[in-house]
Amino acid sequence: GDAVSAVLTVLTRGTAGEAYNAGNPGNYCSVVDMARMVAEEVANGEIQVEKGLKYCMNNGTFYRKMLKTFADGDKTDQLERFYLQKNWKEYRTVVHAIKGTALTIGAVRLSESARELEFAARDEKFSYIEANHDAFMERYRLVLDMIREERVQGI
Q: Residue 80 CB: number of other CB atoms within 10 A?
Protein backbone atom coordinates (compact mmCIF):
# COMPACT_ATOMS: atom_id res chain seq x y z
CA GLY A 1 0.00 0.00 0.00
CA ASP A 2 0.91 3.63 0.35
CA ALA A 3 2.88 3.05 3.56
CA VAL A 4 4.99 0.31 1.99
CA SER A 5 5.70 2.56 -1.01
CA ALA A 6 6.71 5.40 1.30
CA VAL A 7 9.02 3.20 3.34
CA LEU A 8 10.58 1.62 0.25
CA THR A 9 11.11 5.10 -1.22
CA VAL A 10 12.88 6.24 1.94
CA LEU A 11 14.97 3.05 2.03
CA THR A 12 16.06 3.36 -1.59
CA ARG A 13 16.30 7.14 -1.96
CA GLY A 14 16.64 8.50 1.55
CA THR A 15 19.78 9.88 3.14
CA ALA A 16 21.42 7.93 5.95
CA GLY A 17 20.86 9.57 9.32
CA GLU A 18 17.86 11.62 8.21
CA ALA A 19 14.36 11.22 9.66
CA TYR A 20 11.30 11.01 7.42
CA ASN A 21 7.56 11.13 8.02
CA ALA A 22 4.98 9.71 5.66
CA GLY A 23 1.31 9.34 6.19
CA ASN A 24 -2.05 8.78 4.63
CA PRO A 25 -4.84 9.84 6.99
CA GLY A 26 -7.30 7.56 5.19
CA ASN A 27 -5.39 4.41 6.17
CA TYR A 28 -4.09 3.34 9.53
CA CYS A 29 -1.25 0.86 9.83
CA SER A 30 0.68 0.08 12.99
CA VAL A 31 4.46 0.24 12.89
CA VAL A 32 4.60 -3.54 13.41
CA ASP A 33 2.19 -4.20 10.54
CA MET A 34 4.10 -1.83 8.31
CA ALA A 35 7.40 -3.51 9.18
CA ARG A 36 5.93 -6.90 8.30
CA MET A 37 4.61 -5.61 4.96
CA VAL A 38 7.95 -4.03 4.09
CA ALA A 39 9.84 -7.17 5.08
CA GLU A 40 7.63 -9.29 2.84
CA GLU A 41 7.94 -6.81 -0.04
CA VAL A 42 11.72 -6.60 0.23
CA ALA A 43 12.20 -10.31 0.93
CA ASN A 44 10.14 -11.39 -2.05
CA GLY A 45 12.51 -13.35 -4.26
CA GLU A 46 15.61 -12.94 -2.09
CA ILE A 47 15.97 -16.70 -1.72
CA GLN A 48 15.06 -18.77 -4.75
CA VAL A 49 14.39 -22.09 -3.06
CA GLU A 50 14.20 -24.04 -6.32
CA LYS A 51 17.75 -22.95 -7.22
CA GLY A 52 19.04 -23.77 -3.75
CA LEU A 53 17.40 -27.18 -3.84
CA LYS A 54 18.98 -27.84 -7.23
CA TYR A 55 22.44 -27.22 -5.74
CA CYS A 56 21.48 -29.60 -2.92
CA MET A 57 20.47 -32.52 -5.17
CA ASN A 58 16.78 -31.70 -4.56
CA ASN A 59 17.21 -32.98 -1.01
CA GLY A 60 15.14 -30.78 1.36
CA THR A 61 16.94 -32.02 4.49
CA PHE A 62 20.35 -31.24 2.98
CA TYR A 63 19.09 -27.84 1.81
CA ARG A 64 17.85 -26.97 5.33
CA LYS A 65 21.31 -27.90 6.67
CA MET A 66 22.90 -25.61 4.06
CA LEU A 67 20.62 -22.76 5.14
CA LYS A 68 21.61 -23.31 8.77
CA THR A 69 25.29 -23.46 7.84
CA PHE A 70 24.93 -20.20 5.89
CA ALA A 71 23.29 -18.44 8.85
CA ASP A 72 25.75 -19.91 11.36
CA GLY A 73 28.60 -18.64 9.18
CA ASP A 74 27.39 -15.03 9.49
CA LYS A 75 30.23 -12.80 8.31
CA THR A 76 28.62 -9.40 8.99
CA ASP A 77 31.03 -8.45 11.79
CA GLN A 78 34.08 -9.42 9.73
CA LEU A 79 32.86 -7.59 6.66
CA GLU A 80 31.99 -4.43 8.59
CA ARG A 81 35.38 -4.47 10.33
CA PHE A 82 37.31 -4.83 7.05
CA TYR A 83 35.15 -2.15 5.44
CA LEU A 84 35.79 0.33 8.25
CA GLN A 85 39.51 -0.50 8.21
CA LYS A 86 39.52 -0.14 4.41
CA ASN A 87 41.25 -3.53 4.35
CA TRP A 88 40.13 -4.26 0.80
CA LYS A 89 42.15 -7.48 0.44
CA GLU A 90 40.35 -9.14 3.35
CA TYR A 91 37.05 -7.50 2.36
CA ARG A 92 37.39 -9.11 -1.07
CA THR A 93 38.07 -12.52 0.50
CA VAL A 94 34.94 -12.31 2.67
CA VAL A 95 32.60 -11.14 -0.12
CA HIS A 96 34.03 -13.91 -2.31
CA ALA A 97 33.02 -16.47 0.33
CA ILE A 98 29.54 -14.96 0.66
CA LYS A 99 29.17 -14.98 -3.14
CA GLY A 100 29.63 -18.74 -3.34
CA THR A 101 27.64 -19.77 -0.31
CA ALA A 102 24.77 -17.39 -1.15
CA LEU A 103 24.45 -18.93 -4.60
CA THR A 104 24.41 -22.41 -3.07
CA ILE A 105 21.30 -21.57 -1.02
CA GLY A 106 19.59 -19.77 -3.91
CA ALA A 107 20.23 -16.20 -2.72
CA VAL A 108 21.03 -15.17 -6.28
CA ARG A 109 20.75 -11.39 -5.88
CA LEU A 110 22.96 -11.47 -2.80
CA SER A 111 25.51 -13.57 -4.68
CA GLU A 112 25.49 -11.17 -7.63
CA SER A 113 25.93 -8.17 -5.33
CA ALA A 114 28.83 -9.91 -3.60
CA ARG A 115 30.43 -10.63 -6.99
CA GLU A 116 30.20 -6.95 -7.93
CA LEU A 117 31.85 -5.92 -4.65
CA GLU A 118 34.51 -8.62 -5.03
CA PHE A 119 35.41 -7.40 -8.52
CA ALA A 120 35.39 -3.77 -7.35
CA ALA A 121 37.90 -4.68 -4.63
CA ARG A 122 40.02 -6.62 -7.13
CA ASP A 123 39.97 -3.70 -9.57
CA GLU A 124 40.59 -1.13 -6.81
CA LYS A 125 37.26 0.61 -7.46
CA PHE A 126 36.87 1.57 -3.83
CA SER A 127 34.30 4.31 -4.52
CA TYR A 128 31.99 1.57 -5.87
CA ILE A 129 32.40 -0.39 -2.63
CA GLU A 130 31.73 2.71 -0.54
CA ALA A 131 28.59 3.49 -2.58
CA ASN A 132 27.20 -0.07 -2.41
CA HIS A 133 28.42 -1.60 0.86
CA ASP A 134 25.46 -0.51 3.00
CA ALA A 135 22.86 -1.81 0.55
CA PHE A 136 24.75 -5.11 0.33
CA MET A 137 24.84 -5.41 4.11
CA GLU A 138 21.08 -4.78 4.33
CA ARG A 139 20.43 -7.51 1.76
CA TYR A 140 22.83 -9.89 3.55
CA ARG A 141 21.16 -9.25 6.92
CA LEU A 142 17.72 -9.72 5.35
CA VAL A 143 18.71 -13.14 3.98
CA LEU A 144 20.23 -14.13 7.34
CA ASP A 145 17.08 -13.00 9.17
CA MET A 146 14.83 -14.90 6.77
CA ILE A 147 16.76 -18.09 7.48
CA ARG A 148 16.92 -17.56 11.25
CA GLU A 149 13.21 -16.74 11.43
CA GLU A 150 12.40 -19.76 9.25
CA ARG A 151 10.71 -17.60 6.62
CA VAL A 152 12.11 -19.58 3.68
CA GLN A 153 9.08 -21.10 1.99
CA GLY A 154 8.73 -23.97 -0.47
CA ILE A 155 11.24 -26.49 0.87
A: 14
